[in-house]
Amino acid sequence: MSSETETAYAYISAAPILLPEGPWKQIPGGVTAAKGFKAAGIYGGLRAVGEKPDLALVTCDTDAISAGAFTTNIVAAAPVQYCKNVLGLSTTARAVLVNAGQANAATGDAGYQDAVESANAVAQLLKVNPNAVLIESTGVIGQRIKKEALLNSLPRLVGSLSSNVQSADSAAVAITTTDLVSKSVAVETQVGGVSVRIGGMAKGSGMIHPNMA
Amino acid sequence: TLLGVVTTDALVTSKIWREMVRTSVNRSFNQITVDGDTSTNDCVIALASGISGSSGISDLHSNEALQLQACLDVVMQGLAKSIAWDGEGATCLIEVTVTGTGNEADAAKIARTVASSSLVKAAIYGRDPNWGRIACAAGYAGIHFDAKKLDISLGSIQLMKNGQPLAFDRSAASSYLRMAGEAHGTVEIHISVGDGPGNGQAWGCDLSYDYVKINAEYTT
Fold first, then answer.
1. Which value, in Å, is the radius of gyration of the alpha carbons in chain A?
2. Cα dihedral A130, A99, A38, B59 in deg (nearest 10)
3. Which residue in A12, B58, B137, B208 is a FRET match for A152, CA 20 to 30 A apart?
């Protein structure tokens, strides 16, 4: 796993994160900063060019309360449709699988089936309900995900899961496309006198004018 | 495309968590723009493990909910700003702050309209303190305001007051833009449209020749 992590660092640096002053402090880590979460980011052979990591997985040790915001573009990608359906059925989730390389958008029924099969495969490896796995995809529009490469990589991806900072960073790198920097942040604050952590990762550089709901 | 995954160990009910995420997304990711194209894949997933040991949040107006909401806003805004900062071909982040509207949503709409303007973005890249383009974009945002109450500042340099252009130091204003571009820093645009309590922000980036180059080469 450490070689995967070092590989991720070699491809892209971290973005400056601009946070205002407030009753919080920035802490190391991103999606793994909060208790109960693990992450991994590896190269799975999905990108057309280069070997930058392109598969990320975020998991929760418990049934996490889930929420989502999705593009209101009528031509929504298969993973968006899949997630909307799943979040309509369940209020909790255990994992989010993200791939870069192919957006799986405008790919019709076959693309939707790819999303379902990807989620099922992750669920099987994690031994959780398939409806507990959410999917995000980014990359070239009009191309289905390289499913064989993705499915073959999943055992290694699951095996790389860790709650450390490096794993969060690797995941943040793995979801990038034309991004020049990876985006990851975590903060700690007090809620009702108890320390609570919030972390996150994001990607985006072009085709950016979100209108999510 | 914008993708995001947010995690917390706060204990919160499903209904409250989904409402909090909706609010924070509207204050952050939905307030950025790079090129005006809304992706087919934009998606933010937020998970709450509930194992921090904090007491459960089930009232959106409780102190605990407000504390968590503020923190969620900050995390999502931090990520959102880094996306705008990293806009394809960008040399700087543009932060537009609007005050004086009747409510937060109106201010947010004006701010995002200005941040989205290709002419404003190109002017910033050209290091041109073009208050007219900023005023124009504010005016077509679809939010009514009195043009005679329009104030515009670039950083600390005021360009327009009460709808009247000011005799500002053009060289200093241009230098402000140039330094922000050279350092890949932030250009701040402040707009006031009245005396109302509403305020909002949006974030974008300048528009450079490289944007076309990148997207002409990134094909299906």
1. 16
2. -70
3. A12
Q: How many helices (H) and strands (E) does chain A have?
A: 5, 8
Whole-angstrom Cα distance, residue B24 to residue A202?
14
Q: What single DSSP character describes residue B140?
A: T
E strands along chain B, which residues?
A: 3-8, 43-48, 93-101, 151-154, 157-161, 164-165, 186-192, 198-205
Query: pLDDT band at B215, cuts 50/70/90?
Result: confident
Q: Which residues of B fall within a CB distance of 8 Å from A212?
A: 25, 29-30, 42-44
When pLDDT is averaged across residues B137-157 and rounded to a whole number, the result is 98
Answer whether B81's CB lies under 8 Å from A200's CB. Answer: no
Q: In angstroms, rounded to a whole number, what is the distance separating the alpha carbons of residues B63 and A39?
A: 31
Cβ of A19 within 8 Å of Cβ of B78? The answer is: yes
ipTM of this model? 0.96
Residue of chain B whose alpha carbon sits nearest to that of A177: B1
Q: What is the per-residue pLDDT across B35-47, written as a single tens digit (0 to 9) for each?
A: 999 999 999 999 9
The two three-digit tokens of residue A118, written as one number: 């990807």
Is B1 annotated in the active site? yes
Using a CB-CB cut-off of 8 Å, the residues of chain A touching B93 are 18
Q: Alpha carbon of B126 to those of A103, B35, B84, B181, B191: distances in Å? A: 34, 17, 18, 10, 21
List the single residue in A76, A136, A209 with the smallest CB-CB distance to B40: A76
Dist. CA B217–CA B200, nearest whole Å: 36
Q: Which residues contact B154 (CB under 8 A, 6 or more apart)?
A: B129, B131, B173, B176, B177, B187, B188, B189, B190
